[in-house]
Each structure stands twice: as structure tokens, then as C-alpha cells.
Design a protein that fits this description.
The two termini are 29 Å apart. The protein is an alpha+beta fold. The N terminus is likely disordered. The protein has seven helices and ten strands.
Amino acid sequence: MITASEPGVSPPQPRDIELVFVDLARAARLLDHTEQTTPRLSEADQQRVAARQAQTGGDTLWRTARIALRIVLERWAGPSLRQRSFITEAGGRPRLADGLPAFSHAHSGGAALIAVAPQDPIGVDLEALRPLRMSDDRRMRVEQAGQRLAPGVPLSGDETQRCLQAWVRLEAVAKASGSGIGATLTDAGVVGPREGRASAPAPQTAPLVVRDLLLAEGYFAAVAALTLPKDVSIVDFPCEAAALKRFIG
């Protein structure tokens, strides 16, 4: 289990994996002001923001999370990343150009989670606690597949909590491998040709290490990578201007 720590202000070391938790509601005003004064979103980001706002009638969480992602990446690789478009891989995973840090991100409810690493693979996922509309059989297969990814760490809580924790493990692997959640669920026997096999083998991906993350109450998260340090802290994204300036460095 990886646990959260106090906000950090020191730039990450070259070999570190950094995890950043963003309270989107608390950081929203600061991030909006920062984007107005120092634009970081790319043209593609702006187009996606406009499309999402047209669909949802004004939801700004994706934009807020994207600005935070851009700032975290700038913390690693400098201001040359501002407004630079991401490269989209075949499976839909965004990345930076070769030689730049790898990253993974997710947002759910009122929070976002960002992971940055010196190189691939890295994957994180985040889910807010919420009711699930899922058959008992599907829920069971999700739990079994998620348990196989971290066999030494039993899923706990009620059936919804166990399913969400299993799900974020699967999503983290899907993002780290770049294969996408559909292929990962098929390989894990959750959907597709192996749907009836409760004992289907684990996904045939790189030998990824998967760990659960302990976040604020009501959130479930996991990280996947080839190796993970024994101690990886989760930094809280700054919500005040002075702290943000120190954070970016």
C-alpha cells in the first residue's frame, strides 16, 4: 500500500516516480487563473474542452484536471512543454515525445491523480465511490481479475468497494501496457471470448507490479509499473499561488 504524504516542493529526482493527487474543487480557481496568465493547454486540449462543455453544459473538471497535468509535467521537463500537443498512440494513450517523461492520469468525482516517471511503462487509475450498475457475474469476474494482479493484497470492504478497487488495478495495467481497457478486460476473462471462465489467466502484458494507493476517503486508486520503489509518496497538488510557484520550481 502506498500512502499519501504532505505536499512536496522539491523537484523529483531523475529516477523517481511521482504521484500527485489533485483536489479539483479546491484548486480550480487557482488553476483557471494560472492558465489565463500563463497558458499551458494545447490547441487540441482547447478543442476537447469546448467539445466536452458543449456535451455536458459547462462541466469544467476535465479542463481543470488537464491544466494540473500540464503543470506537473512542466515541473519535470520545463516550460518548453507549454501548449505542446501530446502524441496519441494506437491504443489511445497520450504521451510526450521520445526522451521526455512518461505519464498517466485519471480523474473521477472531484479529484485527479497524475503519475510521472522517467520512462514507460506507468499507469494509474482513480475512481470515486459510487453505486455500480453491474450484474453479479460481471462483478465477480472483475474482482477475480483484479485480485490476480495483486495476489498478496486481498480486496476488502463491501461488494462495491471490492469491485472499484479491482477495477482501478485493471485500468492501471491497461494504461501502463498501452493496450487499452477493452483488451485488458478480454485478456483477463472479464469480457469477450473468455467471459464464462471465472479462472481465466491474468493479462498477458509486461510483468507489471500493481499496488493500491491510499487516498482521501471515498476514492480508490492503483499504480502499475515494471518496478516500484518501496516508498512512493503521493504529493498533494498546491491550492495556493505561493505554494504552486514553489511546486513548479
